[in-house]
TrEMBL record:
Organism annotation: Callithrix jacchus (White-tufted-ear marmoset)
The protein, known as: Interleukin 31 receptor A
Signal peptide region: 1-19
InterPro entries: FN3_dom (IPR003961), FN3_sf (IPR036116), Ig-like_fold (IPR013783), Type1_Cytokine_Rcpt_Type2 (IPR052672), TypeI_recpt_CBD (IPR015321)
Keyword ATP-binding listed: no
Keyword Chloroplast appears in the UniProt entry: no
UniProt keyword terms in alphabetical order: Cell membrane, Glycoprotein, Membrane, Receptor, Repeat, Signal, Transmembrane, Transmembrane helix
Gene Ontology CC terms, in alphabetical order: plasma membrane
Fibronectin type-III domain segment(s): 124-225
Coiled coil: none
Length: 324
């Protein structure tokens, strides 16, 4: 009798031991794509058999419920499921749990709780213009269009990133716009003069942890200013037969000067160190410039100019012939 009982029980034990329940869904994450859908994802584990997933949701503050179904044969979307309008209301609290089922049984994830405004994600803003404000130096004003599908009941926080057109390093500023604020502009200050900048913008509902994608980049240039000072140096040549010395002047913009800075010309004046009454003046539009000086020491000064003004003076001493 015992042998008969054992033979009957043995196949059942083998079947039970070979049963492979699906892995418990873990790491549930949900994003509310505002006015589009609520999408939840999870870690499904390594399933070796066909597995069906059912996402169970309560919404409307627990008064309603519905389901969303997918399966392990749905390629890359097998661990994702979405709920669509009109069954999404905001603001709202909802619960999500994921049930995994295969031929051997069912297993359910832990219950998760979501506040929709805390997981809302909007479209990126659209930058409308990036331009200088006339008369205000080293500043550009960014104007944008707020995402059409953005909650009217929430403030929006923004991150603005910027860099010079020749740089690969971004800088960022953060600010918040009140939901009642119709002025969608930001004044970016402390920039370099007459320099082209690349601007990008993103936004998020103030309560949300999800940022929009970055907007398309847009470029703008700060206002031009009077030129910066020059770096000036000289090349001394041997004295000529009449005793006069050719001196070649060379110059360049200082480090950090605006890349786009325009110069219309240069004013040069020079005089013997001990006699300012013998000052000579001249104008140049390019370099190098050659002066013919006497044997004594001289002072040479130079400024550059454009339509907006004149640079600070750059001064250089030319030593006398007998000086070492």
């Amino acid at each position: 009798m015992m042998w008969t009982w054992a033979l009957w029980l043995f196949p059942l034990l083998c079947k039970f031991s070979l049963a492979a329940l699906p892995a418990k869904p873990e790491n549930i994450s949900c994003v509310y794509y505002y006015r589009k859908n609520l999408t939840c994802t999870w870690s499904p584990g390594e399933e070796t058999t066909y597995t069906q997933y059912t996402v169970r949701r309560t919404y409307s503050y627990g008064r309603k419920h519905d389901n969303c179904t997918t399966n392990s044969s749905a390629s890359e979307n097998r661990a994702s499921c979405s709920f669509f309008l009109p069954r999404i209301t905001n603001p709202d609290n909802c619960t999500i749990e994921v049930e995994a089922q295969n031929a051997d049984g069912v297993i359910t994830s832990d219950m998760t709780y979501w506040h929709l405004e805390g997981i809302a994600k909007t479209e990126p803003p659209e930058i409308f213009s990036v331009k200088p404000v006339r008369g205000i130096k080293r500043m550009i004003q960014i104007e944008w269009i707020k995402p059409e599908l953005a909650p009217v009941s929430s403030n929006l926080k923004y991150t603005l990133q910027f860099r010079t057109v020749n740089s690969i390093s971004w800088l960022e500023v953060n600010f918040t716009k009140n939901r009642r604020d119709t002025d969608q502009t930001y004044n970016l200050t402390g920039l370099q003069a007459f320099t082209e900048y690349v601007i990008a913008l993103r936004c998020a509902v103030e309560e949300s942890k999800f940022w929009s994608d970055w907007s398309q980049e847009k470029m703008g240039t700060t206002e031009e200013e009077a030129p910066c000072g020059l770096e000036l140096w000289r090349v001394l040549k041997p004295a000529e037969a009449d005793g006069r010395r050719p001196v070649q002047l060379l110059w360049k913009k200082p480090r950090g000067a605006p890349v786009l800075e325009k110069t219309l010309g240069y004013n040069i004046w020079y005089f013997p160190e001990n006699n300012t009454n013998l000052t000579e003046t001249m104008n140049a539009t390019n370099q190098p410039l050659e002066l013919h000086l006497g044997g004594e020491s001289y002072w040479v000064s130079m400024t550059s100019y454009n339509s907006l003004g004149t640079s600070p003076v750059a001064t250089l001493r030319i030593p006398a012939i007998q000086e070492k």
